[in-house]
Amino acid sequence: MSNNVFPSDFLWGGAIAANQAEGAYLAGGKGLTIVDLLPTGEHRRSIMKGNVPAFTPLEGEFYPSHEAIDFYHRYKEDMALFAEMGFKALRVSISWARIFPSGEDETANEAGLQFYDDLFDEMLKHNIQPVVTLAHFDVPVHLIETYGSWRNRKLVYLFETYAKTVFNRYKEKVKYWMTFNEINMLLHLPFLGAGLVFKEGDNIKEIQYQAAHHQLVASALATKACHEIIPDGKIGCMLAAGSFYPYTCNPEDVFQGMEKDRESYFFIDVQSRGVYPGYSKRFFEDHNLHIVMEPEDADILKNHTVDYIGFSYYSSRTTSTDPEVIKNMTSGNVFGSVANPYLAKSEWGWTIDPKGFRITANQLHDRYQKPLFVVENGLGASDEVSPDGEINDDYRIDYLQRHIAEMGEAIKDGVEIIGYTSWGPIDIVSASSGEMKKRYGYIYVDRDNEGKGSLERRKKKSFHWYKNVIQSNGANLGHE
After folding, report:
1. Residue 38, SS3 per DSSP
2. Of the listed 376, 406, 435, 450, which one is catalytic?
3. Which contacts qualify for 272-277: CB closer than 8 Å, 24 or more apart?
4. Residue 150 gets which letter from DSSP?
5. 311: helix, coil or strand?
6. Among candidates 96, 307, 69, which has minimal Cα distance to 195?
7. CB 434 within 8 A of CB 440
8. Helix (H) or strand (E) holding 313
9. Catalytic annotation on 376?
């Protein structure tokens, strides 16, 4: 299988997030953040949706983010492995609560700033470009408890201060930035996505879209600051992407598929085009939602649009208006989807659809005509270590091989793609389930769902495969 279509400066690499990899959750003066309150087990999904029992970790619960894979102390070892694979880029996030532990401290926390200085230096030493997300499911808990998180406009200015602080600190080291990870997630998992906590009687939809407006304004102000402070920098938005297919050619299904897509595109329409789309106005009217906007917001949004569109792609989704069909929903991912009879599923029920990757990339490029950056794609699976210590993850190689091939086809279609950072190049805590068993990496980490294990790093078969992919600039997608 050959795919000699990738630009010579294509950014091959991987992607992790502070809250799923770093651990050291109180080290160096760090404050509590969203995931520090997310335990494993049955209550996790309910808390992610905004039913938060307490603003401190509870006795008797296991919080996997507290130690994670201890990237905070072991990043040099991990960076050497990424360099061995030939990474050109690594997407990471900065933990807001490492820089401003309460979110509104008078001065930034030097220990936190220094940690990321050291991390970026280590990356650059290996010729790995940092691609940095400002907020990856991350709000300091103090801001959630005190102000109700993003429902309060105060967060717009606190976030702007945080963004300017890190732009000024790292302007010589980091050229690629993103504002909010999977910004559309706040509609599906509002606590995880935006730190929103609900109580009885709240108008949840109105609160979500008010918070969304505040994030969109904050994103535009961060974009403005990035362009001013780092003139040669690029800053993008980030979408949890994956097109909705109508289950049938019934126009009702087709229309619903369009509406489902727009639910996500709404955010990027604003960040990329600088205006609220017409359909959003109708949506607010139909649902009787009153979103408070300041007079200056329209200009802020219009004048400070993003340079590129970052997106995650794991699977496509399917939708239907037929009550009988809807009974057959897949459990995978947070986006409800009807089971697609043409497609296989992962162990965790996520639809596997490489062609959908090409479709999604084309749709995003057609819609925005801006460069795309694939900043997450991968397969979560449980890996077995054989008696001789090998991890033969051919299923992962197969998934990635087929998706990268379709990405190549999208480039041939005329889609401009800056780079590809596959999700979780080293095993990390799963965001959705909190499990370690759900592994994405080319590098195995000895740790289980209960937090036991040596944390030893071990190369999987896919490690060597991806090294060849990068070395050949995507031309060699074969197994050996």
Report:
1. coil
2. 376
3. 272/237, 272/305, 272/306, 272/309, 272/368, 272/370, 273/305, 273/368, 274/220, 274/301, 274/302, 274/303, 274/304, 274/305, 275/301, 275/302, 276/301
4. G
5. strand
6. 96
7. no
8. strand 308-313
9. yes
Closest CA to 75 of 14, 129, 13, 22: 22
0.85 surpassed by pTM: yes
pLDDT, tens digit only, all 480 positions of the chain: 444 799 999 999 999 999 999 999 999 999 999 999 999 998 999 999 999 999 999 999 999 999 999 999 999 999 999 999 999 999 999 999 999 999 999 999 999 999 999 999 999 999 999 999 999 999 999 999 999 999 999 999 999 999 999 999 999 999 999 999 999 999 999 999 999 999 999 999 999 999 999 999 999 999 999 999 999 999 999 999 999 999 999 999 999 999 999 999 999 999 999 999 999 999 999 999 999 999 999 999 999 999 999 999 999 999 999 998 888 877 666 778 898 999 998 888 889 999 999 999 999 999 999 999 999 999 999 999 999 999 999 999 999 999 999 999 999 999 999 999 999 999 999 998 999 999 999 999 999 999 999 999 999 999 999 999 999 999 999 854
**H or E segment and range at residue 280:** helix 278-286
SS3 at position 450:
coil
Q: In this structure, what token pair is assigned to residue 396?
A: 């992962």
Structural domains of the chain, with CATH = 11-471 (3.20.20.80)
Q: Give the C-alpha distances (Å, rounded to integers) separating 444 from 216, 388, 416, 430, 453.
A: 37, 14, 32, 14, 12
